[in-house]
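Subject: Coatomer subunit epsilon structure
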Amino acid sequence: MASSQELYHVKQQFFLGAYKTLISLPLPDSSSPDYIPTIVYQARAHIALNDPAAALALLPADSENVAVKAVSALARYVSTSDSARQESILEELRDLAVEIEGEDVDGTDLDKLSVRVLAGTAFARAREVEEALETLGAETEDLEAVAVVVQIYLSINRTDRAKKEFDRAKQWAEDDLLLQLIESSIGLVAVKDGYSNANSFYTEQLGNPSLSSPHILTARGVTRILRNEIPEAKSDLEESLEQQKGDAETLAAFMVASGIESKKGEADEMWTRLQTEHPMHPLVVDVAQKADLFDESAAKFTVPPLAVAAAA
C-alpha cells in the first residue's frame, strides 16, 4: 500500500521508537490523506510514552473514523486499572473489528488495518492471546500486524512460530525497515549468529543523524549484555536514560548489567527504582511472586535444633 514520503517518515520514527521526535512533528492539513494516519501514530507514540491523556487530547473527539476510535479505545484501556472498565473497552474494540468487515465504514483500507493492529495490541495486553492472533489475522499481509504477531509469539516463548511468521512475510513483503526490525527481534531470542545481526541493525539505525531513539539505544544495550560487552552496554543504557529518564526496560537492563559487573550497590539502586517507579513491571511482579513462594515454602519447613557437641 503506497504512502507519501512524509507518512513513511512518521512510520519509521514510530517503528524505531523515536516517540518524542514523532510527537513533535507538525500535523498535515486536516484535508490531507496523511492526517488521520499521522495523528493515529502520534497518539500511539504518546501511549508508548505512558501518556495516554496526551493521546486522547490529540484525537478529535467527534471523529467517526474507525482508526481514531480504535486508538482512543487503546489509550483509555491503558489509562485505567479498573477491570470492568477495561473489559468494556475491549468490547468496543471487538465491535470495531466486526465493523470494519462491513461496507459502510468511515475509514480507508489503511485505517482498517490500523484497527486490527490496535485491537490486537489491546487483546495482547489483556493476555487474550488467541483473540489477539485471530484479530491480527493468521494469513495477514500487513507487515505491522505481522510484527505484533511475532512479538506475541516471542512473549510466550514460541520462537518457532515467530520464525514461521517472519519466513512467510519475506515471501511477499519488501525488504524494508520493519522487516529488518522483526528479524532482529527474533535473533535476540533465538541466539542467532551470536546476536551479530541484531547488533549490526541497531548500530546502523543509531548512525542515522535524523534519528534520536532511546528505545534503539536500550535494544543495543540489551544486545551487548547478551554478547557480554558489559561496559559498552552500560554506556548505551546510560545514554538512553538521559534521553528518557525512568524508562522501565532501560532500568531493568541497567540493573542486570550492574549485577553482572558485581556492582551490588548500583544494581540495588536500580532495583529499588524499578520497584518504586514501575511496580507492575513483569520482572518486579515475577520476583515478588517467587519471594512469596519462597516464604510460603520456608514456613512449612521446621528447622531442626542444632546438635550440641558432647562434653570432652
